[in-house]
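Worked Example 4.2. Consider the chain below.
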Amino acid sequence: MSRLKIMAASVLLLSATACSSSPPSGQPETVSYEIVLENTSTMDALDTSAGKADIVLAPGVWAVLTSGTLFEAGGSASTSLEALAEDGNNGPFLIDLKGQDHIDQSEILGASHGTSYDDAPILPGDVVTVRIDALSDQRFGLAAMFAHSNDIMIALPPEGIALDRELDSTIEVAAELAYWDVGTEQNEEPAVGANQPGKQSEAGAGDVESGTITKLDNNEDAAGFAYPAIADFVRLTLKRVK
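Applying the procedure from the previous section yields the following structure tokens:
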């Protein structure tokens, strides 16, 4: 075979290899992300009428969504979401998510695998790292209980956030997080109420509230209790690694 023909064959082989490693035009590509959540607060950072307290999160749940939402804003909370937001018990909500067609994958968001609030709360200085593989047209969502509350969680928008970002890009998305009141238990002062994790007599203790899932305005609930700005105690970054 002549040298010219060998060179031409090599070019064709390289072109075919390049095409096979990339998705067809307009098709989603496989992406991988390292997601890091950090409780950046210091000890005793929360001021209350009873003194100072730590800012604590319960281990939550993350999910990759193909469509739809992680929870329904304005709707009634399921019993599984109620358990997550009232008691930091993420197990029932995780089971529910795994049974839904629009959820591609979902796991616990915790300082160690398989934990709920009682096992391992996310304390000041704790760091949680998650690695996900998804498609670029899917979205990422998460929700976790603000532990010193009755039924308040922090969460990304219900529909999640986009995963079609540049390779090696790192973005800070704590600004996308918000407080959500799931409307199942009447609120008490954060870190003071008797019906909050660590103080309640049993899971689910507290006065029942027949409300809907509502985003807090200006970090204040309907009862007038204020919560610390999320960006002051949470760092949430997404880094695309593939």
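The chain is about 15% helix and 30% strand. The domain at 28-240 is CATH 2.60.40.2130 (Immunoglobulin-like). Compare this with Example 4.1 before moving on.
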